[in-house]
TrEMBL record:
Stated family: Belongs to the class-I aminoacyl-tRNA synthetase family.
Protein known as: Lysine--tRNA ligase
SUPFAM superfamilies: An anticodon-binding domain of class I aminoacyl-tRNA synthetases (SSF48163), Nucleotidylyl transferase (SSF52374)
Origin species: Halosimplex carlsbadense 2-9-1
Catalytic activity: tRNA(Lys) + L-lysine + ATP = L-lysyl-tRNA(Lys) + AMP + diphosphate
Record-listed E.C. numbers: 6.1.1.6
């Protein structure tokens, strides 16, 4: 949950946080999805969402159980913001599994006033742009106005607030997390907030007393309502009279402080109804709990230390309601630095899914929310490797510790979405009673997370037909992406044993989809896989007699089955034996395989290619 004005912002911690050692595949035991390592034995949950679901059930909620998240449209809705959606999603799925109907809502606090200009924005395709690339005047002229009253700087939506809400809804849809996006502006303008605003203003002395425990600026003139000026449209904090029975207030449009700057009021005096203003954030958050009937809400640790305690106090002692079950999550960092819309250190779900399958990204969010972790674009291969291992553990294709196997068994089914799998696989499974891939695609699109039968069939598919899926290792897929010959990609994958003759056609086709993802990753990070291997034609490379002999020696060494590390060492030895300058010898190798003067660590790279091709290329035969 984000907020504006009162407390900390939405961009995360000021200190960087390193990635967990437990995230490294092949490293220490991956026990990071348990809520506490102090509890042992069979009673210890393998998935944190189970423990949270217990706490929600203990409230004896009415159906539908309401899970909430929220954000203010103050910047780009980046991957860190999606935390609240996905943490809530996993708890929702566990509750649905237990037989509960669940509604997951996500409020966009678009009634908030714009207090500063963001440096970065994003279009509806998720492309991040600088403020100067759009109609910045649409924002610059509207400081102090509600986001839903500000023109969309992209010109595609009715307002900037709607543009932002559309982006967050798309992020959830891309991860198949069914949320109802609720506009705070709509809550006020529809009258759904009238009763709670009336209650707060009717009890404003008590409200003032409670809030004064948390904010120094609360004085005897403080009124917990902020009207919007009918003359200039800006929010004001100066209420001069309250008429609860008429559901309206009088105001004067005065200056408001926004960080280091002052947004000037126009000094207009007027009257506003309860639908023409808003509660201050500290009251608005618990008011949303009441109006929406919220049972559970996750939020970042900044709110645990700031607005959550005041929210609980206001809920219990002003609104006379029970606050929802909370869950505090740690922040993410991005490549070791805090997510920051203002500094441009952001990445959107749209962007990430050009390098990862959705199920891999869901896996990242399924990790223990109590641990700070880094989303490293540079090391996406490690995240994919960890997901692949969990998948193999689930299907019994690999053994792990008891804890790892329990974790895989519990978590993996929640990572799958029918929207992600090939329609041909759904049609082939026989689970869904569809005649062709078009019907299967429609079925996946119409999946109802609250329908027990839909969920049962999804699980049957995951445990049945989908066991035949094929996964190319991520870095191997990146290597295949370097080939300029698709036929060679397929031949190499089969030769290396990653694809078998009896694999279903849908599984093979789906597996090669990872090649494009890994290639995009290589291109964005400009890593050692960001080259093109010229397989179709032999580059024209002239070599003298000594160099030819050294290349033939190296070819013989590779033919004997050496790995990448050994090949790297042999490159030096072959050059030395034939008195070839080592830099020149590497240059010849790069020209032979890439047609360029430089490239990745050659020996390690050659170890990833199919041996027959490497041998023939070193011998200048093809």
């Amino acid at each position: 949950m984000s907020e504006t004005g009162d407390d900390t912002g939405t961009d995360g911690p000021s200190a960087t946080t390193g990635s967990d050692e437990t995230d490294s595949p092949g490293g220490t035991e991956t026990a990071d999805d348990t809520r506490s390592d102090e509890t042992a034995g069979e009673d210890h949950y393998a998935f944190w969402a189970d423990e949270v679901a217990d706490a929600v059930e203990a409230r004896d909620p009415e159906e539908p159980v309401v899970i909430k998240g929220g954000i203010s449209p103050s910047g780009v809705p980046h991957l860190g913001n999606v935390n609240e959606i996905m943490r809530g999603y996993f708890v929702a799925e566990v509750l649905r599994e237990r037989g509960w109907e669940v509604r997951q809502v996500f409020t966009t606090d678009d009634r908030d006033p714009l207090r500063k200009l963001p440096r970065k924005l994003a279009d509806l395709d998720g492309k991040i742009v600088d403020l100067g690339d759009v109609n910045a005047g649409a924002l610059g002229k509207n400081l102090g106005h509600a986001y839903t009253e500000i023109p969309d700087p992209f010109g595609c939506c009715d307002s900037y607030g709607e543009h932002f809400s559309t982006l967050i809804a798309e992020s959830a849809e891309l991860l198949d997390a069914p949320i109802d996006v609720v506009s705070t502006t709509d809550l006020y303008e529809s009258g759904r907030m009238d009763d709670v605003v009336e209650h707060v203003l009717e009890n404003r002395d008590r409200a003032r007393e409670v809030l004064s425990e948390y904010q120094d600026k609360v004085d005897e003139d403080y009124v917990p309502f902020n009207p919007f000026c009918s003359e200039c449209g800006k929010v004001t904090e100066t209420v001069t009279a309250v008429r609860v029975e008429d559901r309206e207030v009088d105001y004067r449009c005065t200056d408001i402080e926004a960080g280091n700057r002052t947004i000037e009021g126009c000094d207009h005096e007027g009257t506003a109804t309860f639908r023409e203003g808003k509660l201050p954030w500290r009251f608005e958050w618990p008011a949303q709990w009441q109006v929406l009937g919220v049972d559970f809400e996750p939020f970042g640790k900044d709110h645990a230390e700031g607005s959550w305690p005041s929210g609980v106090d206001i809920a219990e002692n002003v609104l006379d309601i029970e606050p929802p079950e909370p869950m505090v999550y740690e922040w993410f960092t991005l490549d070791g630095e805090p997510f920051s819309s203002s500094e441009g250190n952001i990445v959107l779900v749209h962007d990430v899914l050009e390098t990862l399958e959705p199920e891999v990204l869901r896996f990242f969010f399924a990790k223990d929310p109590n641990k700070a972790r880094d989303f490293s674009v540079e090391r996406l291969d490690q995240l994919v490797d960890e997901f692949d291992r969990v998948e193999r553990l689930y299907y019994g294709e690999e053994s792990g510790t008891e804890r790892e196997e329990r974790r895989a068994e519990r978590v993996y089914p929640f990572l799958s979405s029918l929207a992600d799998v090939p329609s041909a696989a759904l049609a082939a499974s026989g689970v869904f009673d569809v005649g062709d891939t078009d019907e299967a695609a429609t079925l996946a699109a119409d999946f109802d997370h609250n329908d027990p039968e839909d969920r049962r069939r999804r699980r049957e598919f995951v445990d049945g037909e989908f066991e035949s899926r094929v996964r190319l290792p991520y870095t191997f897929a990146a290597v295949l992406g370097m080939f300029d010959d698709e036929g060679a990609r397929a031949a190499t994958a089969r030769k290396e044993g990653h694809v078998a003759d009896d694999d279903p056609e849908w599984a093979v086709e789906d597996a090669f989809g990872r090649v494009a993802l890994a290639s995009e990753w290589a291109d964005r990070t400009d890593n050692e896989y960001n080259y093109t291997v010229s397989r179709a034609t032999l580059p024209e490379v002239d070599v003298d007699e000594a160099t030819a002999a050294a290349l033939d020696d190296l070819a013989d060494f590779v033919a004997d089955g050496a790995d990448g590390e050994a090949i790297q060492g042999e490159i030096y030895e072959s050059a030395k034996r034939h008195d070839v300058e080592i830099g020149e010898f590497f240059g010849i190798g790069y020209r032979l395989f890439f047609g360029e003067e430089e490239g990745p660590q050659l020996g390690y790279f050659l170890g990833d290619l199919d041996r027959a091709f490497v041998v023939e290329r070193l011998r200048r035969q093809r």
